[in-house]
Amino acid sequence: MGKAASKKIADPFSIGINLETGEMANPARHLVRRASDMRGHYADPAALEKLIKDQGDPLHYEVFEVPVPQEDGELMYCISKLQPGAVGGEFFMTKGHYHSVAGTAEIYLCIRGGGYMLMKTADGKSAAEKMSRGRMVYVPPFWAHRSVNTGDEPLISFCVYPGHAGHNYGDIETEGFPRRVFQANGQVVIR
Ligand code: F6R
Ligand code: ZN
To answer: In CATH, what class is 24-190?
Structure first.
């Protein structure tokens, strides 16, 4: 008897996603991160405090998802929408995370805007892949990942990853990523 026989088989479904705005029909979960949630992540903490004070703790990024069971065999999917902006010249970015089940990959299909996916492994490897409309970034198992918006409109991606992957912010808050993305004299610079 197959595995499916011991488990209730879910019904198929479909949803609409607006490819211009990233809006997902009836998202069951809406994660909002504001500038104050990003303390500890930017190279210039004073610039972040100034932004929070001057701009009233602006929206940084949102994640819209319709959760599926957090089980092996399921595929979780979401829309990630990262606002444009900079903190002390460093472009707005997500916190970044490993997956709790570290050996699980993720696909990001960029549907609007532009930027980079910064990635690192616990044993010191680092990578940056460009994100632009219609470009897919494959985040292999064991790579922590953070997206960075280098444009002047929201960076919107459709993400797909195993249902049991989970999020592990582990060493990100203490060590960050080896590379950062800045604007300098109108150019995008990865340091
Ligand atoms: C899921 C995933 C994205 C991020 C989202 C927010 O595995 O990679 O949905 O969760 O872009 O980023 P974090 O979780 O780093 O705040
Ligand atoms: Zn992820």
So the answer is: mainly beta
Quick one: 178 exposed, middle or buried, by C-beta within 10 A (0-12, 13-18, 19+)? middle
Q: Which residue, 89, 111, 150, 103, is CA-closest to 23?
A: 111
pLDDT, tens digit, for every residue of 131-190?
999 999 999 999 999 999 999 999 999 999 999 999 999 899 899 999 999 999 999 999
Going from the C-alpha of 129 to that of each of 20, 92, 137, the distances in angstroms are 22, 16, 7
Distance 97 CA to ligand 2 centre (A): 6
Q: Kindly report the protein residue whose alpha carbon is nearest to atom 11 of ligand 1.
A: 80
Tens digit of each residue's pLDDT (9 = 90 or more) over 52-63: 999 999 999 999
**1: CA distance to ligand 1 center in Å?**
37
Per-residue DSSP letters for 2-16? -GGGGSPPPPP----
Coil, helix or strand for 84? coil
Domain ranges within the chain, ordered by starting residue:
24-190
Exposed, middle or buried, 96 (CB in 10 Å: 0-12/13-18/19+)?
buried
- Substitution candidate for ligand 1 out of 68, 75, 80 with most atoms within 8 A of CB: 80
